[in-house]
Amino acid sequence: MHILIIGAAGMVGRKLAGRLAVDGQLGGQGVDVLTLADMVEADAPAGFTGEVRTAALDISKPGEVEKLVAARPDVIFHLAAIVSGEAEADFEKGYAINLDGTRFLFEAIRLQSTREAAREPYKPRVVFSSSIAVFGAPFPEKIGDEFFTTPLTSYGTQKAMGELLLSDYSRRGFFDGIGIRLPTICIRPGKPNKAASGFFSNILREPLAGQEAVLPVGEDVRHWHASPRSAVGFLLHAATMDLERLGWRRNLSMPGLSATVGEQIEALRRVAGEKAVKLIRHEPDPFIMGIVSGWARDFDTSRAESLGFTAERSFDEIIRVHVEDELGGNLPTYA
């Protein structure tokens, strides 16, 4: 099997590649080739015994993504995106990457499938990482998959467009696609990025490393979360499940945990103690507060759960996943 990960240098892409390297298989089939594509060259995952190919390219440039699809990968994970805050700040860049890049990818697959129809058919599995940002306020108490998509950010609009394209290209038989709306991933390892949601991770990750963190919103802000470990699990399940069960509703919201910022902080207090909580500094940011005010807070993900998707049930669990996966199971010794 040949697997292509677009956005492989990002946090989720790196973790997905690492998991595939450890497993050595997907859906019972051995992984022989792993192609890792991003704007910068991605690192090969440790321990992978097959062939690793890397490509540094811009998917928003016509013709670039066709080079990846020409190798006819069996499974394509499309994770590449300009994150929410950056997409809002840079309108043109957001649409170039999040919409044009997605459309170029889908078109490259369509052309490959029709161009090669005279010989072995080509119909890959495509897993598209969408977002709960496709929904906009006002919301019901819990948002189900039937709720209409009226995003209030450019990022959410671009992801919603990608969902529609995925559904139509799948319906026309060019590929077998599924779009998974990821919760906000928490706790993200590494350094802060330009995502407006970054503070949800920052206020936990930095204190868990003995460092100060800035909280730009009030503690009553409620949001929908899942860990990086769960995100990888969603992607792998989406790549191997029977998509006949989806019908033509090819996009669905992933399970997660609804929690307020205050509940996050209380979970941090239970796991790491009062000294960790005291490292959080409140500095209101009107720009971030304005974006967050239009975000979804809670979901009914019974459809995804009935299809086998699972996530954490408490923020204590999310924090412990981070401690296990990123800190070697050790909490810092606070001064």
TrEMBL record:
Gene3D superfamilies: NAD(P)-binding Rossmann-like Domain, UDP-galactose 4-epimerase, domain 1
Keywords, sorted A to Z: Carbohydrate metabolism, NADP
UniProt keyword annotation of Transmembrane helix present: no
Domain NAD-dependent epimerase/dehydratase residue range list: 3-224
Presence of the UniProt keyword NADP in the record: yes
Source superkingdom: Bacteria
InterPro entries per record: DenD, Epimerase_deHydtase, NAD(P)-bd_dom_sf
Name of a matching Pfam family: Epimerase
Name of the molecule in the record: SDR family oxidoreductase
Species of the source: Skermanella cutis
